[in-house]
């Protein structure tokens, strides 16, 4: 499904379901929506308490580094995402900013709300998002999908199972933040594989850029490096 087709479909569903706060599709440039993209960063849904004009993509660069969400500054959530890409930069042999701007970055659900629990018509919106992503993942098949929060991780896992992918391995990596874990699963079908990584929500858990973060960032990096080196 093309980029333009995704935007039309989101716009139509936004009106049909009765949303009123606006929608966002890509948090990255339009060029990142392509068949051969390696990395997908997937959140839950865009935040917002008041109406904002709908945003198909961010052509100035990844919104997590270019949009000041905290009174003209990057907020804690954005800084955590930037730390994540700084960790991945040596693995991918790219400067962190270049890596961010070349990563397909979006949310599982495109409709804005102040929180997931307050999303208008949540079940209907979730059903639409599942259908949308079922089609998106027939167009593009990233090697690594990094989910922020449990919902996008479990939804991506279910979608791949529905496409006859099997779980060939899984791990739980302690973050050093109590019982909070990073979830991982390698999904395979014939010779195709996808690494799913489920991070805790980085707006709540500042796991990167602190003492002890190397205990989980190193094995995380090894997983990503191995998967990026795998055959398509």
Described by the principal axes of the CA atoms, the overall outline is: globular
In order across it, which strands form the biggest sheet? 2-1-3-6-5-4
Let me know the largest β-sheet: 6 strands, mixed
CATH architecture: 3-Layer(aba) Sandwich
CATH H-tier superfamily: Uracil-DNA glycosylase-like domain
Could you tell me the strand content as a percent range? 15-25%
Tell me the Rg in angstroms. Answer: 17 Å
Determine and state the CATH class: Alpha Beta
Chain-averaged pLDDT: 95
CATH domain topology: Uracil-DNA Glycosylase, subunit E
How far apart, in Å, are the first and last alpha carbons?
20 Å
Q: Helix content range of the residues, please?
A: 25-40%
How many distinct beta strands? 6
* Structural class assignment: alpha/beta
What is the number of domains?
A: 1
Number of helices: 7
Element pattern in H and E: HEHHHEHEHEEEH
Poorly predicted runs: none
What does this structure look like?
It is a single chain. 38% of the residues lie in helices and 17% in strands. By secondary structure, it is an alpha/beta fold. It has one domain: 3-Layer(aba) Sandwich (Uracil-DNA Glycosylase, subunit E), CATH 3.40.470.10. A six-stranded mixed β-sheet has the order 2-1-3-6-5-4, with helices on both faces. A hairpin with a 6-residue loop joins β4 and β5. α3 crosses α7. It is globular, with a radius of gyration of 17 Å. 38% of the residues are buried. The model has no long low-confidence stretch (mean pLDDT 95).
